[in-house]
Structure formats: structure tokens, C-alpha cells
Amino acid sequence: MKYFCCDEYRRVLLKGHPFLNGIDFLEVVDDKNDPPEQRQTRLILHFINPLAPGSLQAKNIIIKGGSRKPNIKVSRIDWTIPGSPPLSPLSPPSSPPDDDSDRILLVTVQEAGDFSIYTLRLVADQNGDGPPAGFDPILSSLEFSFKVLCPGEFDCKPQHICEASQESGPEISYLAKDYASFRQLMLDRMALLVPRWKERNPADLGIMLIELLAYAGDYLSYRQDAIATEAYLGTARKRSSIRKHARLVDYLMHDGCNARTWAHIEVKEHIHDHPLVAEANGEKTKCLTRGDGLPVVFDTTSKAFETARQQDLQVFELLHDTILDAHHNEMHFYTWLNDDCCLPKGSTSATLDGDLRALRVGQVLIFAEVAGPVTGEPGDADPLHRHPVVLTKVELTDDPIGNPLQSPLDYEPRIVTNISWHASDALPFPLCISSTSADGRKIMVSVAYGNNVLVDHGLTVRELLPQVPESTVAQPGLGLTDSSSGPCTKATPVQVPVRYRPSLKGSPLTQAAPYDQKNPPVSAAAARLWTMREPLPAIFLRQDGLPGKWLPQRDLLNSRHNDEHFVVEIESEGLASLRFGNDLEGQRPEPGTVFTATYRIGNGPAGNIGSQALAHLVSNAPGITTDSIEKIWNPLPATGGMVQESIPEVRAKAPIAFRRQERAVTLADYEEMSRRCSTDIQRSTASLRWTGSWRTVFLTVDRLRGDDIDAAFERQLRLCLEKYRMAGQDLEVDSPRFVSLEIDMTVCVKAAYFKTDVRAALLRVLGNTELPNGALGIFHPDNFSFGQPVYLSAIYAAVQQTDGVASVRITKFGRQGTNDTTALDSGKLSLSRLEIARLDNDRNFPENGVLRLDMQGGK
After folding, report:
1. What pTM does this model have?
2. Close Cβ partners of 326 (under 8 Å, ≥ 6 residues apart)
3. Which of 615, 617, 616, 612 is nearest to 636 (CA)?
4. Domain end (from 144, 168, 187)
5. Are residues 392 and 361 in the same domain?
6. Which of 129, 144, 159 is the last residue of a domain?
7. CB-based contacts of 791: which residues, under 8 Å, 6+ apart?
8. What is the pLDDT of residues 558-585, one digit of tens each?
């Protein structure tokens, strides 16, 4: 047979034929009990139809083929199989079955063949190739192997693979990449195939088809070039491609961030404990920058709101609810009947005048200078002297002599309110509270503003997205096929869902740092402090008639198959499109789903407005009208608005992002990771010890300002280091070993200076606090860390630079409670790797270091 067919219908047609017969199949008899020379020498031929006795002779059968043993000779043929055992009901059927004995011919050959493929053919005589009379010319021969019953690791069924012929293709110029070159290429080919076709009229059908194919080729060529371009970080032009390349090395490309500030809302005198909600009647409460001809307060259904939209004002929305009270419009500091007072730098508490029991822990107050300390004029106030704080304590008390009556000895108590705020909100500058002008007038320099609410840049809008396509079958020509080996196995196309990538009409999409109203930041500083890995697109999706939200993620790598997540991809022109999951990383939307997108518009430096830029309040909440709101403005400028990261920046930073270490193996790793976990750590040192069953890393931490290693700090640090910790190692956080110092010095004071003044100055210079000019005292905790020696020369230099000091001599210098003079003689006190020098000179805690000054001379 010259060809192979998958379905052999000829055997079916030949069965029962009145005069034609043919070979059905062949068996090789190989009995291991036979002598070796007789094995594989008997062939059993099965025919399709019964054989007429004597119709075939030994001369009518020839066997050709073989490599080592060619052309096997047939010695005899038999019409019955000698020694065939009878069948029993329980024994398997023999080969051949008894009822097919008239279709069987036993052929005995002189010797067994080799491992090659042989061909058995029925011929009319030994010299001819034609079959005997009455036999089909196709089914009168077959191929077989004498070794078919030998053990083998492969299937004995022959595999026929119809390979495609390698035809020589036409000569094509692969430099053709655009419409004109494709068109000319096809015209040249047509001139070769159809030389007599010379029509070049654009209206001709052939020319039209050529130009249509040239257009398709040009488009596909552009697609190939674009895909090749976007495949590499150095050549990609789309932000979505750059983002994915950078993510491979754990670099998160950001799309900018919106700005935040506090809006101060002044209410009328009769307003007390009035709620202002962040969202009312389905609309966000908004603060707008100053517009023309607009009232202070209006709602979204008014004409004023349409006018504001036309004026393209910057929109800020409330992040949380608040309570408005007229007593909090402007609160005065209480100085306990003293004049010319100020809050020093680093203050975390103050006293306000009056009964302010409506103040609550967690509320934000803004301290602001409202008049010049010298002139008392509002225009001379320093706008930089404004600072927000979050209250941590509110306590009512009274001043028993706060209200003097007619008689100088007659007083009436005055109710005042003590407030405290978080250490992170400590005053960054001295705040002048009150002063006296040149003409003797009392000047109220600074006040505290309440009724403040945190707002951020962005306008909430809603948009109905296109329906998810009903059909998820791949478009024609884009389907994938799963083909197996063999030409008779039909290729099954794999259906590819249609991609659903809706785009948003509004831009720029707001990128906002996370804010949880139920768990607000503990300080005002924390409310405006975040990294650029934190902001996410301010958008969520809802399905019609279903609860729940689809939420945005930076990527879907950590999303499960049923998580309703999506990714927002923003291109350079600001167009935002949504990418959904594939039912492996993130859920794929069901066909026919209709989404409503709620998102915000407004991002970047455009939101970094100056102070007093906000002037209008837009709210649908009941009671928020011009009858209740007097004024709205922002005492502080908005900050945090950042432009999206550019593609050149990502190309420069992403290739080295993977160098950022994310594991702690060595002791130096633990020290570095601890400083990464907390900005409150000045330095840390690690030690590794065997604790009996495993190794434990003991991390000794030196906090800024000498703060204690309390339980809350230790728990937060251990939780952060857990993801870096090496498996099989435990972790403990320890406090430093402080070494208290003892210093005695004799100071000679210049004659023109008072000894007490010079002594006070030296105590400040050699103290452990921050000086009024912002410098640190010599023994401030931040000046010393682990193993850092204390040099005697530095103390001499600091003392000698103090005004009024003529000379100084240190008589004792060393560890407290010892009489060792080694440090005094060498001029240096050495400390071990876990020790930190300390000299607090606090009479309440003399064990924390002592400084004795013997002042000589002066006044």
C-alpha cells in the first residue's frame, strides 16, 4: 500500500463478497516450549472470507524483506492447524477460533526472520506481482515482523504520520513593513502568477483586494513591532508595560498621590454638638477653593454647585465625620495670670481658657499665631507658626485665683481645660502665646482652632461601565489549538475569553493614601505621613443588584480565585483602564455583568493649595446651611500631592530595586532591618547566643531621645522583624546597658559675670536636653550610642566656649561610683559594644549620672 488511511472501509466492503477474498491479519506462532530452530517459523494467515480448498499453494506465497535474513522461503502450507486443543467453557478462546477454521491458512517457513519488517504477498506465480485469481489486489499483501511477540517497550501498532510536504515558497522580500511596500510586493507576485493581468485602476476588484490586504499587513506589522517594543524595560513606551516589568524585580511604580489638609469650619454662636458627616444622602461632603459669586454653604442640587463645576475649582472631600461646636471656633490659651508667655519647642501639653468639656480625645486642634508679638497687628503674624495636634487627654480643672474681684484679697475660681497631645505632634518651634506691646497693651499672639476636619483632594463621580461581553469565545483567528501527535486525532480548539478592559471617562484618577475612619491616625503627623507604596486608586465597583464591592489592588499576584479584585492601569496621557483576574489570580467577571464605578477625580500637585484657599462647603447633610456655618478655610496648606512617577525614573530605579535585602541572616542584617522597621531607632546591635535548644538573636535597641523599650514598642518591632527573621532562630529585644558618668570640674568665672548665670549656662550645655537654639546638650541621649567613647576634650571644648568661663579643670571623670582614674589620665572613657554613656544630672535619680560644678571667681 502506498498510502495510509485512518478508516479502512475496504475490509468491510470485501467481507461477504461473492468471488473476491483477501488477507485479514497474520499471526506469528512463537511457543517458548518449541525447539529454538522451530520458533517463529509458523505463520497463521487469517482471511476475510472462507478459502476454497486447494486455491492456494506454497508457490503462491512469497515473503520479501529483511536485512540479515532476506527473502524467507515458504516450505509448506496446511489448511488445518495440527494439535489445536478443543475449547472448554472456562478456557479462553484459542487463536484461531474453531468456527473460523475455513478462513485460516498455516504457512511454515524454512527459518525465522530477523528484526526487520517483512512483506507477505499472494502472487499468481513466482515470477509475477499480480495476486492469484479471486484475491483483492490491495488486501493480498501485508507487512509483519517475526519478532512481534518479543518483549518491547513500545506499542507494536505502527504509527503513520503524514508529514506536510516541504514546498518551496515564493521569493518574498522580508523588508516589506508598511502599506506601500506590501502593496508593491503583492503586485509583483500577481505579475508573476497572472502575467496578463495589468489592471491598475483603484476601482478594480483585484486592486481593491490587494490594497485591503496591504492595509491588514501594515496593521499586523505595527502590532508585531509594538509587541517587540513593549517586551523590554529599556524600549517599552506604555506605562502599563513599564509597571509590569518593574514589578518583576519588586519595584512598585506609583501614579502619584493626592494632597491633604485640615479644613477649619467656624459655626454660628448657637451651634453646639452639631454633627457634620462625610457622606449624606449618597453624596460626599466637599470643600471647594474660592469661587466667584458663590455662597459659603450650598448643596449638590443647587445652581451654585453647577456654577462651581463650571469654574473648575479644586475639590476636597471629608475623610471622617466630626462634631461642630461654637466654643471651638477659636480657643484662647490660659497662662495662669502670667504675661509674655510662650510654649517652648517640644511641648506636648497646654492649658486652654474656659470650660471646654466638649473637646474629645482624638480631635485635631491647630495652634496658630494670629498677631505679631511686637505690634499686635494680624498682618505681622507669622503664617509658618501654625501646627496641628491630635488630643490624647482633655481634663477640666480650675484656677482658684483666676477671677480677681473688687478686693485684691477676694478671688473667684476660673474653670480651665488642660490638654495633651501625642509626642509625634510635639511643637517644632516655640509658640508665642502672649506679649506686651511698647505702649503697654496686652497682645494675644496665638490661639487654638477647633472644628477641624481632615480633607483630601478629589471629586467623587459615578459611571456606568460597558457590559461584560456575553460571549467568551475567542475571536476568529485568535483561538488556540491543542493538537496531539498523529494525523487522525482531531485538533480541539481552546476557547479564549474575550478580554474585558473598560476605560474610565474621567481623569486624572485620584491616588489616595489609606485612611480608616474607625481607626484614625494617632497623631496629626501620622495623618500626613505615608510612603509611595501605600496609595491606591480611589475607586470601587458595584454589580447591579448585588452587595459587596470590587476593590482595587496594586497587582493580582496575591489574589485568590474568588477575590473580587481588579487592577487600574494608567497610561501617560491619564487614561485609566481596568484589568480583571483570570479565575486563578482574581475573579473574572461573569458574562453580562454590569458594573457601576464610583471613583474620584483629582490628583497630583494640583491639590497642594495654599493656606486660606478653601472657602465653600458643599453638603447634603441636614442642618448644614448658611444659618449654621459662618466660615470655612484651611489654616494650613495642603501637602502630599505628588506627580506620577515618570518612565525614565522607573528605568533608572527598577533595575537596582532587587538589591534591596528582604531577609535577615547575619547579625548586621538584623540591625539594618530593625532601623528599617522603625524611624524611632537611633542604632541597634545584635548578638547571637545558644539558649539550650536553638539559637536566639538578642537585639539591643537604642531609641531616639533615650526612650524606654516598652512593651508596645517591643511588640511592634518583633512583628515587623518576623517576616525577615531566619527560620530556626528566635528573637529577643533588649534595652541598652547605660553607663552612668560622674564628673567633677572646677570652673573659673570671669570677673564681669555672675557665677549663677554661668552655672546655669553650663548645666544647659552639659545637659541631656535640647537647647533653645535647637542644638543638643553634650549628654543628650542622641549624642551617644553603643560602644561610643566619651572624650574629655569634647567636654573641655563645650565648657570653654560658654560665655563667662575663664578656665576649667576636670578633677574627676569616669564611671559613677568608682575611683578609677584611667579615663581621666587618658582623656577617653571606653565602653563595650552594648554600653551607652549617660549623664542626666537629675537630683531625683542620682544613679543616672552626676555633674558637680565648683564655681570660682565672678560675681
Report:
1. 0.70
2. 267, 268, 269, 270, 271, 272
3. 612
4. 144
5. yes
6. 144
7. 827, 828
8. 999 999 999 999 998 889 999 999 899 9
